[in-house]
Amino acid sequence: MNFKLSLRLGIFGGALLLAVGNAWAIETKARTAVLMDYDTGEILFAKDHKKMVAPASMSKLMTIYMVFEKLKDGTLSLDDVFTVSENAWRKGGAATGGSTMFLKIGQKVRVEDLIKGILIQSGNDACIVAAENIAGSEEEFAQQMNIKAKRIGLMNSSFANSTGLPDPNQKMSMEDLALLSKAIISEFPEFFHIFSEKEFTFNGIKQGNRNPLLYTMRNADGMKTGHTEEAGFSLTATVKRGDRRLIEAMGGMKSNKERSEEAEKLINWGFREFDNYKILEQGQMVAEVPVWMGKEDNVGLIVNEDVVKTIARGKVIDTKMTVVFDKPVRAPIKKGDQLGIVKVEIPDREKFDVPLYADKDVDEVGVFGRIKRNLKYLIWGEN
User: Which CATH architecture has domain 32-253?
Assistant: First the structure.
């Protein structure tokens, strides 16, 4: 028989949950935007965040993901040297009007310098050099980008080049840019510091990092700007304060000033209005249920991992948690057997279930024990 037990929030170690309003409490001039909590993956703000739009140089984040993966699996090293082709020089050089590392035809460049040229100087030539030397051609590299993007869960992205230069097949959603940033931070921590370096000099030319938040916001440490006529002024950024990190991606702003102001406004709002709350704790017993034909009368139901959610501050609510299990639970029971779930309902959030596991072994009683228990049940209706 399925049994449900509704529990109030106070039972769970006094944890505090807060509700999110139905409407966003903030607006942005960006055409598309998303704000995400890094640890929980919760979306705090969204505006056409799944729409595929021109990402401009923000798509260099996918290019650098491909490079970092090669470094991590050992097929590439920071000291490897790539050669600058005439194609990379022509398509990515200063004559095109785009951002450039000012590479020269035939120049030998260390991979580490190319990475800095991509992330700090936003060099289109640096991207093409990396693509050609890794995959043989930029076209083949773009195909590899498309395959990898799907494998890591970027379902609203399409790549035609390594640079983000205008192309009808070069599209990304703000959600995918946030997810990609999260993947870069978590998978390649040894390289993440490069995103926050404010300047890089190559071929005698010093250029500053184009991310405006590095100069204006406390603890801003990534990710990438973008700008074309179609994309407008765009930015993917991340800021860490204390134990919390937020990631935002925004597109379609009208000026560099508007990009900076809107990015700061949304990030500050996210830190001010939300926090992360541990609503269930690893090892926490949320219920004790009767055991049928067991050497012990009860078994505890525990949570195997912390459950943390990003929830709005200042709106205390009674979050509903319902323990669901079959009653009675039949012995024998092994520690770690899943015996039930907690159904969690937080207003304005999707409902979700948390599995519950036995906190100990419970052996089955012997023959005489079973006879005794059956008689007890027949006479008194008790286990």
Answer: 3-Layer(aba) Sandwich (3.40)
